[in-house]
Design brief:
8-stranded antiparallel beta sheet; 22% strand; alpha+beta
């Protein structure tokens, strides 16, 4: 009640909502019934973060058209905020899922999993691309999607199955960027829906080729045909201090 009183006093001081009557002896402010809709409208607009200047302009020229214009703008803002919060929630859920998996996973296991289709942003790289250049490419590409922070997306690298089968285990050709709730757009890389071989590698990067050899052997014994690309991404960088503890998740689609 005290906060409402202070709010009304402030609105009176700035000329936004004058009381119908001020008692000459005790200074109490009195408002009539006709002012109630105006107050409710002001409070709603303030809840929507409409500026005082905008509200004052609206009050001086109240109309259905002007109120609709204000509300249209705020609905657009709210929709963008909701989408951003949904993306943050998906990112947090993915991190939680990764942490839960870390507590129980068998890093030596190679398994088959089902995955849904994903739309990925990709940038081209080759053996000569430096780490600094990779960061520059990712930063430039994510900027196109108006991300406030880089951790709003997840990142990884891609190497073609044909390179793996040829023994070229360092022939990475793309970096991928996954943005939560990204709608499908022209020019994006489609990671297909279906069965995937999933494996993990912990430790030095130069030992990943050995893990790929184990994956290829597993696929051969199981009669599985690999296709497309292998998708690699780190899953525990948020909770480690040494690169020796870094865990890479490897997923390769199978036909």
């Amino acid at each position: 009640m005290e906060s409402i009183k202070k709010t009304l006093m402030w609105y009176d001081e700035i000329g936004l909502l004058k009381p119908a009557f001020i008692h000459p002896e005790n200074g109490y402010r009195y408002y009539n019934y006709d002012q109630s809709p105006i107050l409710e409208t002001i409070l709603l607009l303030r809840e929507l973060d409409v500026s005082i200047n905008e509200i004052q302009a609206f009050i001086k020229n109240r109309s259905a058209a002007n109120l609709k214009k204000l509300l249209d703008e705020k609905i657009t803002d709210l929709d963008q905020t909701i989408l951003h919060l949904q993306a943050i929630r998906k990112t947090v859920c993915n991190h939680r899922q990764s942490m839960a998996a870390l507590l129980t996973m068998d890093l030596s296991e190679i398994s088959l999993v089902e995955k849904e289709e994903r739309c990925l942003i990709t940038v081209e790289i080759d053996k000569e691309t430096s780490f600094e250049k990779e960061v520059e490419l990712i930063t430039a590409e994510t900027a196109k999607y108006q991300l406030g922070r880089l951790h709003d997306a997840s990142y990884g690298s891609m190497i073609s199955v044909s390179s793996l089968q040829s023994g070229n285990f360092n022939d990475y050709s793309k970096l991928f960027i996954e943005i939560p709730l990204l709608t499908k757009k022209t020019g994006l890389h489609i990671q297909p829906k279906g069965k995937y071989i999933r494996a993990f590698h912990k430790g030095s990067w130069d030992r990943i080729p050995l893990r790929y050899q184990e994956i290829l052997e597993y696929a051969g014994k199981q009669g599985l045909t690999l296709s497309g690309f292998s998708y690699e991404k780190g899953i525990n960088e948020m909770v480690i201090e040494r690169m020796e503890d870094y865990i890479v998740q490897i997923e390769i689609p199978v036909l």
